[in-house]
Amino acid sequence: MTSILFRPTFTLATLLLVVVFAASQSNAQKTEPEPKLKALIIDGQNNHPVWPKSTVMMKQYLEETGLFEVSVARTKFTWRSKREKDYLPFAGVAVGEELPKPKTDPDFAPAFKDYDVVISNFGNAAADWPEATRTAFELYVAHGGGFVTVHAADNSFGDWLEYNKIIGLGGWGGRTTKTGTYLYYDKEGKLIRDDGPGKVGAHGAQHNISIVVRAEHPITAGLPENWLSAKDECYSFLRGPAENITVLATGQNNTRKSSAGRHEPLLMVLRYAQGRIFHTTLGHDSYSFEGVGFITTFTRGCQWAATGAVTLPVPEDFPTHDKPSSRTFSRAIEGSEDGAERERSEKAGDNGSQKKD
Predict the structure, then answer these.
(1) What does DSSP say about strands 263-272 and 202-203: parallel, antiparallel, or unpaired?
(2) What backbone torsions phi and psi does residue 250 show, to the nearest 5 degrees?
(3) pLDDT given for residue 345 in this prediction
(4) CATH architecture of residue range(s) 37-339
């Protein structure tokens, strides 16, 4: 009798153990993290002296999403890095040799193909890349690589035809009427393509730009129709091939022709063969990079360029039509517990960054 009662009890206990073990294995598999997207920030020569710091800022913004693993590739010859030189080591690459003028780095050859998205923090007057690097970059984007151009990166390489096609619109950098068309919205809300003569690249005084969302897109999904940037420059009179381009958002041009109601492209997306490109003209200085509008559209733009989709939410502190919003940047110290320990960014040149503009 004892044996008869014991056997079912043992069998049931064994079955329960098997079920519990299987469930634990299933949960372990479910909690395995997704592979992170690989992002590469390229820098080294930019007419905006904030660039050593802004590279670190963008790197940290992407890493804080939990979606990206970020590397930096830097030219060995650097230009205009002195103001923010203290940030140079924090990019995780060699500091480089500072020169009084831009100079081509013959060894600059990032492995673009190893990354889901490449972000340019170059600027006006940056020296040309080696021909092989240019070709590799064109092939990377054409074959489906993501690219993000930030602020003065659309000033770079004005005589590089394929680069102009990739970014759609650019300013300065030797660009002329032959570079392409003007693209802007008029006061009636009509998208204008203007092939007429005129300068290429301008901006008015820095201010909180009134931004208007012009298109439905994963990057702009959930954003208010109107919102204010942090203190920044509103680029205007940009020209380019403007092929396969969608203007996501515009800002009021603040030059002498502002009375004409010209609204300039600030956020754009493009396709270059199979590649996805996000173009933001925001990001003049550290206080501009601290804007929640910049941070949100930049990180979402990078995710879209890398994957074609956006899952990052719109934060509660996103700016509104009458209230800008910023977050004072604090550099996360590597090895600190949960990233909680940070180094406050209170350097000359921050121009008094505040939580609210």
Answers:
(1) unpaired
(2) -130, 165
(3) 43
(4) 3-Layer(aba) Sandwich (3.40)
- Which residues does residue 182 pair with via DSSP β-bridges, in sequence order? 194, 239
Angle at 103 between CA 98 and CA 109, to 5 degrees: 100
Residues linked to residue 296 through DSSP beta bridges, in sequence order: none
What pLDDT shows up at residue 316? Answer: 98
Count CB atoms within 10 A of the CB of residue 281: 29
Dihedral angle at the C-alpha atoms of 239, 298, 229, 82, nearest 10 degrees?
Answer: -80
* CB contact at 8 A, 180 and 197: no
pLDDT mean values, one per 10 residues, the chain (357 residues): 45 51 52 89 98 98 98 98 97 96 98 98 98 98 98 98 98 97 95 95 93 98 98 96 98 69 94 98 98 98 98 98 98 58 43 40
d(CA 244, CA 269): 8
Nearest Cα residue to 90 out of 43, 47, 48, 122: 43
Beta-bridged to residue 210, according to DSSP, are 228
Specify burial of residue 294 (Cβ count, 10 A radius: 0-12, 13-18, 19+): buried
Q: Are 311 and 296 in contact (CB under 8 A)?
A: no
CB 173 within 8 A of CB 124: yes
User: 3-class SS at 4?
Assistant: helix
Domain boundaries, given as residue ranges, for the chain: 37-339
Q: Kindly report the number of other CB atoms within 10 A of residue 10's CB atom.
A: 10
Tokens of 87: 């940030």
Tokens 């804007």 belong to which residue?
291
